[in-house]
Amino acid sequence: MKSGQQKMDWARQYMPVLGSIRREFEEKRPLEGVTIGMALHVEAKTAVLVETLAAGGAEVYITGCNPLSTQDDVAEALNEVAGVHCYAKRACSNEEYYAAINRVLDARPSITIDDGMDLIFELHTRRQDLLPGIIGGCEETTTGIHRLRSMADEGALKFPVIAVNDTPMKRHFDNVHGTGESSLSAIMATTNCLLAGKYLVVAGYGYCGRGVARKARGLGARVIVTEVDTRRALEAHMEGFAVMPMEAASALGEIFITTTGNTSILTERHFPLLRDGAILSNAGHFNVEIDVEWLEKNAGDIERRDGIDTYVLDGHKIHVLAEGRLVNLATPKGMGHPIEVMDLSFALQALSAKYILENGKSLVAGVYDVPNAIDEEVAGRKLTSLGITIDALSEEQEHYMSAWDIGT
């Protein structure tokens, strides 16, 4: 058996929620005749989602959403699945990356599934002729949702998109536990360095940042949080983390993880302040949080090894992991989020794609939350797979929670 298929088989056994959806899709074929275009991280968990959509009757065209996150053996295995066409390639050039995006769009999809909004961006800029055929889309990540909401506010978004990232099942499990565990495990596997006792700086205390911070503290790191939001900064403080500006943290930190989704978090004003041997990594979607371009131009010497670029500035070394791209996927040993976490997120994607197909034509262009019923369904399916049962409200309790005329 080829390695890509082995990876998919391994992932499938830990994805019971998506497995239950696949069985229903195979029976009812709710996506029959639909063409779905996807730009996601092409690795084993994503492949199980793609198989599920194809089992539901869809013709699926997929490419990567990051030049370094594709696993080539999984891409090869996907091309052996009936109804699936995969164009992703690891370490592709920028030109190859967008050529693959456009090969997906050449299939004239009616539903898009994005992680970072690259398909939607291309549709709204260079492929506007395809817009009339789009029913709607789904977006997986925080950065993509920020951009989509900006488009919607400006009236530029031309079809409805489900904000899969913003639903509780995504934020509280994928963003917190998925990003937290996978980022730290990739850093440890790539560097073989100990976290315990080290000053570890987390930039941003959103759902991803708090996941990283909490997991790092559990491993014994001395965690510092940097923030621009007053409430999140206060929350980090109340949860026991040191909070300070990045310039102050730069002089202390030994390991840095950016999780903001914004640009210019670690820049030329911070680099001279860093300790010799500081390790910089990014867990945000795009490679804009660490100014690697400045380091490439200004370092006195550059040493490259597998997954680590070392820049020498005034005699001290700065180690950047995965070229400043997503550390949990772009490092050679990065496997992405844990399988069980992606089982939940991709179950949301599959059910949201079905929802868009059934309802997209009646929705005006804009960004929509995942319907609460879908979010609760995924949680319920997961509890069932774990053999966990919970209480239900009695009629008396339901009345009490909805009544206004019951006194003390």
UniProtKB/TrEMBL annotation:
Cofactor: NAD(+)
EC number: 3.13.2.1
Occurrences of domain S-adenosyl-L-homocysteine hydrolase NAD binding (ranges): 175-334
Enzyme class label: hydrolase
Gene Ontology MF: a single term: adenosylhomocysteinase activity
UniProt cross-references to InterPro entries, sorted A to Z: Adenosylhomocyst_ase-like_sf, Adenosylhomocysteinase-like, Ado_hCys_hydrolase_NAD-bd, NAD(P)-bd_dom_sf, S-Ado-L-homoCys_hydrolase_CS
Binding site for NAD(+): 141-143, 206-211, 227, 283-285, 328, 337
Key words, A-Z: NAD, One-carbon metabolism
Domain of life: Archaea
Cofactor binding mode and count: Binds 1 NAD(+) per subunit.
Cellular component aspect of the GO annotation: cytosol
One BP term from GO: S-adenosylmethionine cycle
Entry annotated with the keyword DNA repair: no
UniProt family annotation: Belongs to the adenosylhomocysteinase family.
Name of the protein in its database record: Adenosylhomocysteinase
Species in which this protein is naturally found: Methanofollis fontis
